[in-house]
Amino acid sequence: MSRLSLGKWLLPLYTALALIFLMVPIVYTFIFSFNDSLKSNITWRGFTLDKWLNVCAVQNGAVCQAFGNSLIIGLAATLIATTLGTMIAIALVRYRFRFRSSTSLLLFLPMATPEVVLGAGLAAQFLSLGVPKDMLTIILAHTMFCISFVVVTVKARVAGLDPALEEAGRDLYGSPGQVFARITFPLLLPGILAAALLSFALSFDDFIITNFNSGAVTTFPKYIYISASRGIPAEANVIASAVFILALVIVVTAQVSAAARAKRQARLG
Amino acid sequence: MAFAAFASTAAPPTDAPPRRRSPVALLLLLPGILYLVLFFLAPLVALILTSLQAPSEFGDIGMYSYAFRWENYVEVIGQYWPHILRSFGYALIATVLALLFSYPLAYFIGVTARRWPLLQSLMLVLVIAPFFISFLLRTLAWKQLLSDESFLVTSLKAVSLLAPDAHLTGTAFSVIFGLTYNFIPFMTLPLYTTLERLDLRYLEAGNDLYASGFHTFRTVTIPLSMPGIVAGTLLTFIPAAGDYINASRDFLGGADTQMIGNVIEANFLVLLNYPAAASLSIILMTVILVIVGVYVKRSGTEELL
Fold first, then answer.
1. pLDDT surpasses 80 at B7
2. Do A149 and B2 touch (CB under 8 A)?
3. How far is B138 from chain A (nearest CA, A)?
4. Secondary structure (DSSP) of chain B
5. Nearest Cα to B110, choosing from B14, B210, B199?
6. Residue B1 pLDDT greater than 70, yes or no
7. What's the domain of life for this entry (chain B) (predicted)?
8. Based on C-alpha coordinates, what's the Rg of chain A?
9. pLDDT(B99) > 50
10. Pairwise CB contact (< 8 Å): A11 & B108
């Protein structure tokens, strides 16, 4: 009996400890965003809200500028990658065409290639073409590795789409454009939004590929990498913590609304 | 982040409409495919060409001309073989550790917690939560938590579990620890997606046939969760083998823990030895593709690609 109950509690206990372990560096980063630190943020010197209230004050706003660059790059790469990736996903599910398996391979390979190889490859190409590295080269690089992830995410949504709905639209004399705008696109939207969020997250946190293709431009992760040897200001923790909370809110909201939708559908049908 | 990718491959294909041939397909495919050709395939070609370059005749640093100098490969292997071996060794250990860590976790979330969907999704959010905080900052957080002044290290030294002059940071231990921690979500999520769909009646059948719990686990649960194990190990191993943040001296590494990524970065961005960086990149990619190919074939999960 006692052995049984031990076995029963072992797995939940392990799960709780494992999840706590995963949270450790997050909690650490969050706590040290309130540290009344000087140049580097290593030892605890006391609680302050100052860093949260004056995020951009440090180093003439270098942290905020890097953060702003990351936002611009993330938005641009997300926009391009989501558009191109969604188009590919629709084609893959809906149409027959030659070179199907080579297309799939071309989409799979960027996900199976280590980032350092992707980054060095692009840098070698820009170097041999004499393209100067700046914001644009970072956006081009980020778009490249986001496309495959968009395709996989949106593909599942296209595959789950009931073709009868579009047929109904056509039966009611909707033009192909109308059917797409009024039926296909709204039904695909949750998948497209998920893909866009994933792209933005991938771009925002990317360091390895950025490091090879950024020249003098500093993104938020690159700022942390450069500052790591001389000390990271607590303001960086503030930005990371704020982004963390925002991402958490988005994900939890999406989960809750998906659960509510599932409940509603279960009631209806 | 590949979570969504693997979660969605799990979606059952509903009765798909018959695929048609249409010029629209080409219009939809062309822009994206062209993009990948220009910014993924062409760079790989550029990388191969660069890896065969010879130093320019004028002897300027960072100046190379196109050649067919395959000796570059011999030279980088001769010079950096410890880094190459170390990278794959560290990545392998981190992958095994992440699998051991994640399997029970994914099993609890995907199988035991099935009756409580809300708890299930809450735990999933916690598993992916590390993705929401900067990769570099969470690695630096571990650097502080494992540093000589940290509570953990001073306590370990107080109870003599650690020698007084020993360090945790800057060692193989801390690099493998960092690699394991950082890629755990990549392991847990694909495991979760397969375990979540595991049909419990198979396990009941095992019990009915008087198999022990362990025997059922080994002969039923593990084989049925193989797609998740393969996806998770690949998603952990590939980025871990090419990573250079954890092993960097400013993060969890030291002089003796440098991996192939560190060497590629140093050669490309600091020493401006592009051919060496390029040949190391090609070596890394080739080895990984061979490993992925053999591994996927042997485990019989080709449909994953």
1. no
2. yes
3. 5
4. -THHHHHHHTSPPPSPPPPEE-HHHHHHHHHHHHHHIIIIIHHHHHHHHHHT-EE-TT--TT-EE----THHHHHHHHHHHHHHHHHHHHHHHHHHHHHHHHHHHHHHHHTGGGG-HHHHHHHHHHHHHHHHS-HHHHHHHHHHHTSTTSHHHHHHHHTTSS-TT--STTSHHHHHHHHHHHHHHHHHHHHHHHHHT--HHHHHHHHHTT--HHHHIIIIIHHHTHHHHHHHHHHHHHHHHH--STTSTTTT--GGG--HHHHHHIIIIIS--HHHHHHHHHHHHHHHHHHHHHHHHHTT-GGG-
5. B199
6. no
7. Bacteria
8. 23
9. yes
10. yes
Task: Please report the pLDDT score of residue B303 as a whole number.
Answer: 53
- CA A192 to chain CA centroid, Å, is 13
Q: Which residues of B touch A103 (CB under 8 A)?
A: 29, 33
> Which fold, B79-258?
MetI-like fold (1.10.3720)
Q: What is the pLDDT of residues A62-100, one digit of tens each?
A: 999 999 999 999 999 999 999 999 999 999 988 888 888
pLDDT of the residue at B64: 87
Interface of A with B in 29-48 (CB under 8 A): 29, 32, 42-43
Superfamily of domain A64-239: MetI-like (1.10.3720.10)
Tell me the CB-side half-sphere exposure of residue A133, using CA atoms within 13 A: 22
Q: What is the DSSP string of B76-136?
A: HHHHHHHHHHHHHHHHHHHHHHHHHHHHHHHHHHHTGGGG-HHHHHHHHHHHHHHHHS-HH
Q: Which residues pair with A95 in a beta bridge?
A: B20
ipTM (interface predicted TM): 0.91
Strands B20-21 and A95-96: parallel
pLDDT of residue B300: 67
Contact A160 B11 (CB under 8 A): yes
Residue A257 banded pLDDT, cuts 50, 70, 90: confident
Mean pLDDT (chain B) is 89
Q: B107–A160: do the CB atoms touch at under 8 Å? A: no
Q: Is A47 helix (H, G, I), strand (E, B) or coil?
A: strand
pTM > 0.95: no
Point out the least confidently predicted range of A89-93, B57-61, B74-78.
Answer: B57-61
Does A135 contact B at CB distance below 8 Å? no
Predicted confidence at residue B212, as pLDDT, reads: 83
Query: Which chain B residues have a beta carbon less than 8 Å from that of A151?
Result: 32
Give the residue-averaged pLDDT of A38-54. 87
Cβ of B31 within 8 Å of Cβ of A141? The answer is: no
Per-residue pLDDT at B14: 47
Closest chain A residue to B180, measured at CA: A22
Q: How many Cβ contacts (< 8 angstroms) between chains A and B?
A: 287
Q: Considering only the C-alpha atoms of chain B, give the largest distance between any 2 of them, rounded to a whole number of Å.
A: 79
